[in-house]
Write a structure and sequence with these properties.
By secondary structure, the protein is of the alpha+beta class. It is 18% helix and 27% strand. The protein contains 6 helices and 14 strands. The strands form 3 sheets. Strands 4, 5, 6, 7, 8, 11, 12, 13 and 14 form a 9-stranded mixed sheet that branches. Helix 1 (21-28) crosses helix 2.
């Protein structure tokens, strides 16, 4: 029998009236999906005015919603003593500088050597469990071959607080990258919905019909003979966003053989992209903070070579 350790209740306000029950719950708990709450509702762990309702129930002002929050499922991922480059740490969170080639969380083909394995060893039992078995502590991620700043949450309150900011697109995320070709404009804005590629399911693509809105801001830092060193700032955070957007304007990232050329003259391991700066409101102090990760050695060497 499942024991629910936490029961929370809240009252619907006028602005929320008319919304679906599952959508309201996903907004209140931004670290979880509507699918998660649809499952809870189906299993009678959500009550409206002390009665069970369906996920598509339209809420009314002053409805009293009661939710039973299950405890985190014990993880089946083994902690591993893998060195971490920690940029910042306190009782609520840490920010790590993820190296190139490291997968963030376990997935088919990568069940060991991931960032999650490393942080489980470092944090012991101090990690948020809101993502259950697969991604303890992980509130966002970056690609395997992208380096840089990544937030890890140590408790569920921190996880919800940071996830809420990510959902509202209020987290500052600045990247550095080197793209193919010479970008003529000093700065610009790329807007194009991103979704699954219609035929190549492992790729993302500009997909205005089925994709999610995506906006990337960029500026040129330095131009070379046939490459450009750039800074990117994300307004949204879609999968492969910078890679897809830059490829869409004819300037794929150097080393990105998925969205760019199959040729790799600089012998790079994946795309030349670095998540340099991340900024957010701290969950406890409620003050804005920014943390930056230095450019990795391979990136600095490539800049000198160019």
């Amino acid at each position: 029998m499942v024991i629910f350790m936490q029961i929370e209740s809240f009252e619907i306000n006028n602005e929320q009236e008319g919304e679906r029950l599952d959508k309201i719950l996903a907004e209140i708990y931004p670290g979880q999906s509507r699918t998660f709450f649809q499952k809870l509702i189906k299993e009678d762990h959500v009550k409206v005015n002390e009665k069970t309702e369906k996920a598509n129930y339209r809420v009314h002002a002053e409805d009293l919603i009661e939710v039973e929050i299950p405890p985190a499922v014990p993880v089946a991922i083994l902690p591993e003593d893998i060195p971490l480059d920690i940029l910042y740490e306190d009782e609520d969170l840490l920010i790590v500088n993820k190296p190139k080639g490291m997968v963030v969380h376990p997935c088919p083909g990568h069940y060991t050597g991931t960032l999650v394995n490393a942080i489980m060893y470092h944090c012991k039992d101090q990690l948020s469990g809101i993502n259950g078995e697969i991604r303890p502590g992980i509130v966002h991620r970056i690609d395997k071959d992208t380096t840089g700043s990544l937030i890890v949450c140590k408790n569920d309150e921190c996880h919800r607080f940071i996830a809420g900011q990510i959902k509202e697109h209020s987290v500052t995320r600045r990247y550095r990258g080197i793209v193919s070709g010479v970008v003529k404009q000093e700065s610009g804005r790329i807007e194009g919905a991103i979704g699954r590629h219609p035929t190549e399911r492992k790729k993302m693509a500009i997909n205005e019909k089925n994709g999610k809105p995506a906006v990337t801001h960029y500026k040129v830092l330095e131009r070379f003979a046939n490459a450009t060193y750039m800074e990117f700032e994300l307004e949204t955070g879609r999968t492969h966003q910078i890679r897809v957007h830059m490829a869409s304007i004819g300037h794929p990232l150097l080393g990105d053989t998925i969205y760019g050329s199959q040729k790799n003259p600089y012998h790079l391991q994946g795309q030349t992209l670095h998540a340099m700066t991340i900024g957010f409101i701290h969950p406890t102090t409620h003050e804005y903070m920014e943390v930056s990760a230095p450019l990795p050695e391979y990136f600095q060497k490539l800049l000198k070579k160019l």
